[in-house]
Amino acid sequence: MYNYKTECNNSLFSLFMEKQKLSTLFSPKSVAIVGASDKEGKVGTAITENVMKLGYEGKVFLVNPSYESLHGQKCYKSLIEIEDGVDVAVVVVPAKFVLDVVRQSADKVKNFVIISAGFSEIGKDGVQREGELALLAKQKGLNVLGPNCLGFINPKINLNASFAAGMPEKGNIAFVSQSGALLVAALDIAKKEGLKFSSLFSVGNKMQMSEIELMEELGNDKDTKIIGMYLEGINDGKAFIETASRVSQKKPIVILKAGKTEKSQKAISSHTGALSGSDEIMDAVFEKTGVIRANNLEDFFEMLEIISSSAAPQNEKVAVITNAGGAGVLATDAFKGRSVKLADFSDKVKGELGKNLPEEGSVENPIDVLGDAAEDRYAHALETIAKEDIGTTLCILTPQEKTPVGKIAEVIIDFKKKTDKVVAAAFIGGGLVEEAVSKMKEAGIPTFAFPERAVGILDQYYKWSQRKGSEKRLKGKEDCSERKGIVAGIINHAKEEGKKALRFDDAAKIMALYGINAIESHYFKQGEEVPEGMKYPVVAKIDSDRILHKTDQKALVLGIKNSQELSDALEDLWNRFPGEEILVQPMLSKGTELILGINRDEVFGSIVVAGLGGIYTEIFKMVDFFVPPMNHEDIVGKLSEGKTAFLFAGARGQEAFDADEVANVIGAIMEFAGEVPEAREFDINPMFIYNNGEKAVAVDVKIIF
Amino acid sequence: MYNYKTECNNSLFSLFMEKQKLSTLFSPKSVAIVGASDKEGKVGTAITENVMKLGYEGKVFLVNPSYESLHGQKCYKSLIEIEDGVDVAVVVVPAKFVLDVVRQSADKVKNFVIISAGFSEIGKDGVQREGELALLAKQKGLNVLGPNCLGFINPKINLNASFAAGMPEKGNIAFVSQSGALLVAALDIAKKEGLKFSSLFSVGNKMQMSEIELMEELGNDKDTKIIGMYLEGINDGKAFIETASRVSQKKPIVILKAGKTEKSQKAISSHTGALSGSDEIMDAVFEKTGVIRANNLEDFFEMLEIISSSAAPQNEKVAVITNAGGAGVLATDAFKGRSVKLADFSDKVKGELGKNLPEEGSVENPIDVLGDAAEDRYAHALETIAKEDIGTTLCILTPQEKTPVGKIAEVIIDFKKKTDKVVAAAFIGGGLVEEAVSKMKEAGIPTFAFPERAVGILDQYYKWSQRKGSEKRLKGKEDCSERKGIVAGIINHAKEEGKKALRFDDAAKIMALYGINAIESHYFKQGEEVPEGMKYPVVAKIDSDRILHKTDQKALVLGIKNSQELSDALEDLWNRFPGEEILVQPMLSKGTELILGINRDEVFGSIVVAGLGGIYTEIFKMVDFFVPPMNHEDIVGKLSEGKTAFLFAGARGQEAFDADEVANVIGAIMEFAGEVPEAREFDINPMFIYNNGEKAVAVDVKIIF
To answer: Are B643 and B612 in contact (CB under 8 A)?
Structure first.
């Protein structure tokens, strides 16, 4: 089992130390604005007005050496001039003055929001400036949000310490944005869609306070039910995994991660590297940590809306009520391939439903209350299906000639008050449904413009509720130092010989230390005779770090049946690759080919990649990503739900393969990845696995350093 | 080559006969309403008011035996009482009176819109009633829209001959809906989204006038630029393919097809049946015919909007302008896996772009004009990139503190007037962008709430523009009657023997008639000795229609190396399957396995399914659907773009396989499918193909009747 390194625990420790202080920053009793102004169009003016005029009841101090007074109150020359305590200083002076401001007051003020741009985002000079600021903050024990950010908003205390206009409604959504512009757009969308916030943060350059610290803080914030984040990068992958896994047990985290497109691939000589783009790894990390990934901005806001207003569906069963058959069919289509399912109703409930419906209606799910339905048919259907064990009810409406849209909305709102199940609505239309939709939103009913979107978003919410809590905490396992020493010796020896990759026999020795079974091998030096007593058939191949793709370069002879054929093969290979040692191995009965390897991800560390091998590996991409830490049970679980699940379930006319055996190999590779960082690239390709009792065997192992 | 049957040509002929008349129905100079009323809440009243009060300038006749006058004008007892000609009669009387109304007046009135429900949708009695109506219509040469429909709307002549309220704006979208409720919802959404229509049709039960007739009619309607359809079923698959292929050459057809989820699979003994759900076939048909498939209601309306207002992108290159970096990254993400691409700008253009941008802006695509951008930066960027060969420009905006949203919208509108390229906008926000979005819509600029949606919809539009025109008309090929006769003889003989499937040798004979190479075979009757001179290795298997899955039932012995082993194998098989003949075939060097077969689709006829075989066929689903008619070139083209394209392109370390050879087999199966309808199920599984010059060979062929 893979275990975290010590720096990870350190960073956790420091988080806990700062926790108390962070809440002082975000719920301050006093705010100072350094760079306060009243000149039209200045950022300092916007912030000053936001802090002073939107109802914040704490003390506000204005700081600007150019003014004696501002906005009708005293203006200080500097922070240190202020006699009272200052919980947080919002700094909006030009970048070149920021360090001085902070340095001067660092003994008095411990929390800073640095709005000013001109730091690492502008290149070399800015990077240096930010470095100095970070060092100062560390030395003085400061909390810093930003620099190059919009600030933050805490609607509960009516504090808008940002230059985004307005005060959003108080609610339970915390929104963290790495883009200030999207935060502004979100505020505007929120107003239209009725989203309500516990807090909003623009994290800017994330010099010190990043998604990690904020997840931790917001995880403990009782006013926050859901944490929504827009992120362009993740600073510390391991801390992210640890923190997100823990916080998502308590409350849902929805992340819109920008930057899906692949970076241009570095030169990669192992296959597993080529199989995994950074986005697939991100998916695996989000899945592992229980984070809900929003695919786009639209999904993101809809996820926030539904989670903000509803508990997660208690089960996968959904009942749909519609006044249009067509819309019901479209909703039914949307369930294809989802975890949430259309519920089957009992005969009793169907009978009951029928009592208040004309014959043409449908008592099957979706319930069709017909185009002339008034509110009574919706009410009756809602109350009847409440008797079933349904997780979610979705009410679809089209505004037909006689449809009392508003009254139907009221019926749904009334029903919602009486139930702890999810009630959602998709009223399809424009002006005719607008008012009803607003009322339902106001009453905490998640609404969707189209039924298909409702089903998709409900599905994500339900999947999250199933996934969270499935993660087990792992005990760290001690490093096996003896094993590490042996491996290091082998690799160092090869390095001294100028090699870039291990010979197969050396790699096989290392595999044995990790309990991985590799194929037997016998090496022939140039000119060496074929000994008697060898078992045939065998395979002969060049084993050199200069020849990584043996098939392509015809450095491989298969199906050698006797000693004469072997002599011929050796001669042929030496003719073409003079001086190379030749590796001879038994030719195994062909098993199902797996490929297993390590992806050394820059952010998330070593990820194990495992899946179906063979010549079409890269076309089928039937591989999964195993993100440490995982115990054996986790790995088996992931195998049984992953891309190669069919192997372990048994397919038509085929015995199941042993998931435990493969999980052991994956677990061992995870240990190897952690213990042997000098192995830059690693893969087993192929590993043959059998479903007839034969033991899995690594046929080729590449360890590149 | 597959050729249409004669009834297909007949139906085409009858379409052309009716064309003139249909336009009389939809652009009538006079309308009679049978069942006109003025009682509140009656459908007849709604229609009467819609026809009379929304600006229609033709003559309106009201018919209702209960009134002398209605709405201030004479009310007739029946249609025949009316002295003037009646171009169309809208009938809203109860179902039981409809036949009488039509029968009485069928010599006077030729066009009917039957609003009344109570026909095939209510079951047995209704089916009979609808059958009588259809017969009457045929005998009297009538055109009938409906029954059980909402009617139709022709905004150009201000005629709303439906009971949906209001008059949509005149425009170029024709909307055909199989759901009346969705038509009503569409009208309401249209008002909000600024969609404008040439006509709207509710087709109801599609007794006579279906998507086929309307596609034909609307294809020739000069006021219609785009045909949008919501369909729950397709009546005549072959006519659909023929008509849609032809009409989509002239104008885009966007279809939202409801009913994606699978019908419960019938008992299927061939693999190809299990591989193809009806939805995959629908996809293949839409692709073949050049129809744009909308995945959901939201996509549907957005496709209508963009096509209505813009020409298709002239090339795949898209330029993006944004005032928020984050939104630019999200847009970039959305291009992943699309046909449309972010354009690369020339150095000259980048230099030019830089002249009007602060240093922090980006002159790479997406162009980041920064958060403080006023309209001048958008204008300069738009004009500069107009110098590049760009197909589409997408303008993204977030409403930041200083963003002049309205002025930027004006700049975009002005630019649109000067260019024939696609200009689209995604203004992300709520109230702050609402007015600007409306103005842009009004000016014919497609707008999207989120940049990711813009990219997705643009991509579909671009793909359509590339696909249309790629279809070639085929000459029909004469049936090969001689071959048909031989095949019928073989099958009849087997039927007489009580068989349900052909023996391999018979199937191989048929394959030979179609130029398909099947493996040699030799049969052994129980007790028969193994002759000398056989070539080994061989395979022995039971060949019986009682044993369709040979591997599962261990009715197969592989790798028989000499006559002794063969004798043993025969004895073993006869012990377990007494009396069965045993088929012995050479054991071939294993090629890449394909599976090929026929899916007899209820709607679209015989579709050839072809793809990768082997034990994981059903897991990988690497199969494509070949919808006749196709010529050799079409088939090769589809193979080279389909799921198994990698075989024919050559993969790493692997020679390419011969697409021509596989296309010949597919073409031959298409002919077989057309000529031998008695073959209820058919598949070749596996066919071995080789990339070393060896000829492809069918190893097993199943013909079930």
So the answer is: yes
pTM here is: 0.88
Indicate the CATH number for domain A312-467: 3.40.50.261
Closest CA to B622 of B262, B318, B275: B275
Query: Which residues from B are below 8 Å from A401, CB to CB?
Result: 43, 46, 163-165, 184
What letter represents residue B340's amino acid?
V
Which two structure tokens, joined as six digits, stand for B395? 């303008």
Residue type, B255: I
What ranges do the domains of chain A cover? Answer: 6-258, 312-467, 523-586, 592-704
| CA B111/CA B113 separation, integer angstroms | 7
Give the one of A326, A453, A652 whose C-beta lies nearest to B179's C-beta.
Answer: A326
Task: Quote the tokens at residue B281.
Answer: 């076939």
Pure H helices in B28-154: 43-53, 95-105, 124-140
CATH architecture of B316-447+458-467: 3-Layer(aba) Sandwich (3.40)
What digits encode the pLDDT tens for the residues A142-193?
999 999 999 999 999 999 999 999 999 999 999 999 999 999 999 999 999 9
Domain A6-258 -> CATH class: alpha beta
Beta-carbon contacts of residue B385 (< 8 Å; ≥ 6 apart): B319, B321, B343, B345, B349, B353, B367, B393
Strand A73-76 and strand B317-322: pairing? unpaired
Q: How many CB atoms lie within 10 A of CB B9?
A: 12
Strand-pairing partners, residue A595, are A611
Shortest Cα distance, chain B CAs vs residue A285, angstroms: 19
Each residue's pLDDT tens digit, B394-406: 999 999 988 999 9
Question: What is the average per-residue pLDDT within B28-45?
Answer: 95
Tokens 């930041």 found at: B400
Does the beta-carbon distance from A651 to B616 stay under 8 Å? yes
Reduced 3-state DSSP string for A633-657? HHHHHHHHHCCCHHHHHCCCCCCCC
Q: How many CB pairs under 8 A join A and B?
A: 207
CATH code of domain B520-587: 3.30.1490
Look at residue A35 in the predicted model and tell me its pLDDT. Answer: 97
CB-nearest to A181 from B185, B324, B552 is B324
Environment class of residue A27 by beta-carbon count within 10 Å: exposed (0-12), middle (13-18) or buried (19+)?
Answer: middle
How many angstroms separate the CA atoms of A616 and A622, rounded? 10
CA distance B654 to chain A (A): 8
With CB atoms and an 8 Å threshold, state whether B182 touches A41: no
Which of A188, A330, A335 is the closest to B432 by Cβ? A188
Q: How much is the CA Rg of chain A, to the nearest whole Å?
A: 32
